[in-house]
């Protein structure tokens, strides 16, 4: 059974930094691309970033490009999201999701974690 | 960026009745369309990919159809556990993956 467990969410001031992690189990982690999706309070889903299985490809939403960095450690089955220069509008639940394929192209998100809450406020 | 538009925003349905949800893409995405279900306080769950292929474990009462720019999710006979928010998502023209704004299916 696929399990994804996010951690690292917290209250942070505008301009601050935070690092989210997602511990994966139940599948061959290195084989699959992985993704972060966020959901602001009471709002819909927004894709944030994706990374290929072999780390050969990373993509970012325009809203986070240059501020967020996605990475993975295939030896530890862990996905990370380094979030810098945080803004109030980054406040959201951040979900880790497993892609249905390897290269983060034309893939869906077939398993999701329960999410971790990031609150950016002074 | 492809814009996904869902209608209606809210659908009021009685248990046992059929629900029909619509999703429109701003340009053709072939059948690269997925549907997700999100219950209150829970993570989204993949229901359908390829516009019409049910994900593992998804009941047959959920069906998807369409291609190009017009898509439909049908729930043939609503059960109590089906009341939730449903999102469509395109995965043809990437990045970015884009979602519709969601349709809330509520009890009438």
Tell me what you see in this structure.
The complex is a heterodimer of chains A (122) and B (108). In chain A, strand 5 (45-51) and strand 6 (58-60) form a beta hairpin. With 122 residues, chain A is mainly beta. Chain A is globular, with a radius of gyration of 13 Å. Chain A contains no helices and eleven strands. In chain A, strands 2, 4, 5, 6, 9, 10 and 11 form a seven-stranded mixed beta sheet that branches. Chain B has 108 residues and is mostly beta strands. Chain B contains no helices and eleven strands. In chain B, strands 2, 4, 5, 6, 9, 10 and 11 form a seven-stranded mixed beta sheet that branches. In chain B, strands 1-3-8-7 form a four-stranded antiparallel beta sheet, with no helix packed on it. In chain B, strand 5 (45-49) and strand 6 form a beta hairpin. Chain B starts with a strand and ends with a strand. The mean pLDDT of chain B is 96. Classes of the chains: A mainly beta (122), B mainly beta (108). The interface between A and B is medium-sized, with 25 and 24 residues.
Integer average pLDDT of chain A: 95
* Low-confidence residue ranges of chain B: none
SSE string of chain B, helix = H, strand = E? EEEEEEEEEEE
N-to-C span of chain B: 35 Å
Please bin the fraction of helical residues of chain A: under 10%
Distance between the amino and carboxyl termini of chain A? 40 Å
Tell me the structural class of chain A: mainly beta
Morphology call of chain A: globular
Secondary structure layout:
The complex is a heterodimer of chains A (122) and B (108).
Chain A (H helix, E strand, L loop, with lengths): L2 E5 L3 E2 L5 E8 L8 E6 L5 E7 L6 E3 L7 E6 L4 E6 L8 E8 L9 E4 L3 E5 L2
Parallel strand pairs in A: 2-11
Antiparallel strand pairs in A: 1-3, 3-8, 4-5, 4-9, 5-6, 7-8, 9-10, 9-11
Chain B lengths: L3 E4 L2 E4 L5 E7 L7 E6 L6 E5 L3 E2 L7 E6 L2 E6 L9 E6 L7 E2 L3 E5 L1
Parallel strand pairs in B: 2-11
Antiparallel strand pairs in B: 1-3, 3-8, 4-5, 4-9, 5-6, 7-8, 9-10, 9-11
């Amino acid at each position: 059974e696929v399990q994804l467990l996010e951690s690292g969410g917290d209250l942070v001031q505008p301009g601050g930094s935070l690092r989210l992690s997602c511990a994966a189990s139940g599948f061959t982690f290195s084989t699959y691309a992985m993704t972060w999706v966020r959901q602001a309070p009471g709002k819909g889903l927004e894709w944030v970033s994706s990374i290929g299985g072999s780390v050969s490809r990373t993509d970012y939403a325009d809203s986070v490009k240059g501020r967020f960095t996605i990475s993975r450690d295939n030896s530890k089955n862990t996905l990370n999201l380094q979030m810098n220069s945080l803004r109030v509008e980054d406040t959201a639940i951040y979900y880790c999701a497993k892609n249905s394929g390897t290269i983060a192209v034309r893939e869906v998100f077939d398993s999701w974690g329960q999410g971790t809450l990031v609150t950016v406020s002074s | 960026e492809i814009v996904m538009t869902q209608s209606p925003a809210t659908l009021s349905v009685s248990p046992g009745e059929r629900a029909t949800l619509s999703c429109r893409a701003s340009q053709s995405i072939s059948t690269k369309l997925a549907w997700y279900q999100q219950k209150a306080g829970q993570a989204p769950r993949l229901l359908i990919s390829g516009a019409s292929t049910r994900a593992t474990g998804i009941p047959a009462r959920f069906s998807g159809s369409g291609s190009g720019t017009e898509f439909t999710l049908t729930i043939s006979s609503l059960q109590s556990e089906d009341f939730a928010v449903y999102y469509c998502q395109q995965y043809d023209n990437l990045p970015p993956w884009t979602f519709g704004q969601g349709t809330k299916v509520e009890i009438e």
